[in-house]
Every structure is written in C-alpha cells, then in structure tokens.
Specification:
mainly alpha
Length: about 70
C-alpha cells in the first residue's frame, strides 16, 4: 500500500491518497476490528505520514491528523 501512495504522479495522486486514507479511517472506526488489525493500520498511517509530509499534500496531512484525533474520542 505504501508503494501505491508514491507510485502515481499528477492530479490522480492526491485523489488516490485521499481515497486510501478514507478507507483506512473507515476500517479503524468499524465495529469488530481486532486490536491487532488496528495496530497494523496505524503503522501504515505512520509510514504514510512520513511519505506525505515530504510530498507536500496538505489535505492528506489534515486527513491523517483527523484520523489520529478521532481515535481518542
């Protein structure tokens, strides 16, 4: 999945990044998700955040932060 975030270029790159982040968010908030699966999803978000900080995608950064903060609610 991390390769998908870095592979695309141009306008479609931001759409794909936002789609993946929204799906991870819905996975984390879904009922019945095992704690171990949440840990893997958060690990992916950690890697994605490192990649997206370098790419300059502000919308993706906001999405990642909102996912993290929503986990504490």
């Amino acid at each position: 999945m991390v390769r998908v975030l870095t592979r695309f270029h141009g306008e479609s790159k931001e759409e794909i990044q936002n789609t993946i982040l929204k799906e991870v968010s819905s996975f984390l908030t879904r009922q019945g998700t095992k704690p171990s699966h949440r840990i893997y999803a958060l690990g992916f978000l950690n890697k994605a955040a490192g990649i997206l900080i370098g790419s300059g995608s502000i919308d993706a950064r906001h999405t990642i932060l909102s996912i993290y903060f929503n986990l504490f609610n």
